[in-house]
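Recall from the previous lesson that a structure prediction takes nothing but the amino acid sequence as input. Here we apply that procedure to Enoyl reductase (ER) domain-containing protein from Monopterus albus. The sequence below is the only information supplied.
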Amino acid sequence: IVIKCKAAVAWERGKPLCIEDVDVAPPKVHEVRIKIIATGVCHTDWEYLYETEKGMKFRPFPLVLGHEAAGVVESVGPEVTKFSPGDKVIPLFLPQCGECKRCQCPKTNHCRKNWENTQMGVLADGTSRISCKRQQVFQFLGVSSFSEYTVVPDTSLAKIRSDAPLDKVCLLGCGVSTGYGAAVNTAKVEKDSLCAVFGLGAVGLAAVMGCQVAGAKRIIGVDINPDKFEKAKAFGATECVNPRDHSKSIQEVLVAMTDGGVDYALECVGSPDVMSAALESTADAWGTCVIAGWTETEEMKVKVLKILMGRTLKGTYFGGEPKMSLPLDQINVAFGLLKSGKSIRTVINL
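The prediction returns the following tokens.
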């Protein structure tokens, strides 16, 4: 049976989302239909709507954005064996089929099951399960959590504990996993090390938390919005720096503060200039810089000597509060709060 519900539809780039009545089709083979309970509003959603083809590859409109969420299984399609109606779940924009070469490799989480399709907003059969006004609506990254109901592949879903608070664990669907994983899994931050985290949004705060859990001695938060410093310190930052307070470059400031550079720098902004600064803030001979900020089309500049002297440059993909809670019809307000820096992560209750 088709479910009729509300969704925030992006009809075209650069325009606010519209709350529309949509139809969500039943799940097909190896698909699961879920009721979204809570969804985070990630900067990647905003960037795709307002800066597509700048830092983001083009994906077709109309579409329903949203990729960081938690919900409850409503129904399952044929051949689905790992999920049942009523299960609490987190949809994943990065699949895990458990069978391919990449899933079998302990070095990566980069499964490619249905990857090309979901990146373009459709599922395995090349179509979306969401429609509006008799028109197909594409599913952003194969998820579309800015809808009260959505359908995802069973390889793009994680079952969680039945007592999990969905308005909190939804952040595991992107921001927290990415930032925390960047510090713990990719950088492999060591005890008593010196760390710098560039960007103190949800991903950055999770990175700070990861550095603290790993036992870092100093964790320097870097952001141009000083309103984020207090929260960063609550998450584990030992000090914070605003690049705009200094005449020298932020990398020069950090090198001076740490007598030669940090051991680990985590870039959680998605800006090529910040990426370069993060790399140059690390100590030569052993410094490691991890890129967690998202951009698809831009290029960063790297001076060969910075690598030649022994630094390591790595990337990570998919590896909060405080967050505000708003109803779905306030989705455009959430984008405004995100862009202004007044909210670390807004969670929409559906």
